[in-house]
DNA sequence: CCTACCGATCGGTAGG
DNA sequence: CCTACCGATCGGTAGG
């Protein structure tokens, strides 16, 4: 009868809001995600939604966190049990290709989309997006260095150059799938990764 | 005294609206481009702005056309006097790198941004963006085929594969400049293009 | 977690 | 090209 919910219920509600938010923001962007639409789809009032976060910006940051958890589980964690260096680098690339191919987020890579939406702005959301890319780039770079140290890649390999090119392939794949619905692009991305990393 | 303008004046006004629109949409996106903001910045009424186009969608399509003219002048036309085949392909890539480096559009490549903004939607704007990418890809592909026919690239070259990889490099560069303000990325893009196309 | 509200802004129209 | 307006929606707040 009471509108007040227990802590557990409140956490469940918050989680439900974030799940729905990720789905909406993936398709419409983090700005197209509106409190009113969330409230309607969740059969809540706007203030009920907003109460869990305080502001739209705080909601957007929480959505980025949730999307990050999904990305981590889909792309990063499968590579953790794998031997560091070239093997792990290959698994990371394949996991990202698969993640794009399966459209884990219906709008394509959540962070590539967020980067394009916020790169021309300032604020906490933009900073959060940038730091996530820095972290991801750093991980690819670290595995590249390990691979060079282990003699799995030529010693003249420039890690930043290689990572730049790998990121380009992943962005081209994301673009080909989302804009052109190109089903051959994943094969091209795999082929290009193989040219650079062998396998 | 009259609010009615001559045909020449009306065309000038329309052109002024489009110039301002390109600047706004490059930074804020084609959806963030609003009639009200345009009217304020141009010291016009909203209906005065809208009268030139009829609807926001028609305005967005006209803005894409104007942006296309700029892209054409910056990237395509410099390559026209150049010998077809590998040489022209190199000039096209260099022109695009330079266009991104000089930030001809302050928000990065206008069409990459539009693709990300509209790839999850339907309608005339999305279709216009996709067909522009098809045209651009077709041009790169044609020059690649010419280069292969002329023996300037190995006969086993897969044109679609090469174009996919070149587009990836350009997207990685766009991303590095816009999100990370990375001043070394243009050099990496040039190096990667050179690895593929020689020079 | 709700209702009820705020000022601002959206795309667009009527009528001139 | 204008003024004056329309209904819808935005993020957010007061008060409970």
TrEMBL record, chains A, B:
Ranges of the DNA-binding region feature: 34-53
Domain annotation HTH tetR-type: ranges: 11-71
Keyword terms: DNA-binding, Transcription, Transcription regulation
Listed PANTHER family: HTH-TYPE TRANSCRIPTIONAL REPRESSOR NEMR, TRANSCRIPTIONAL REGULATORY PROTEIN
Protein name: TetR/AcrR family transcriptional regulator
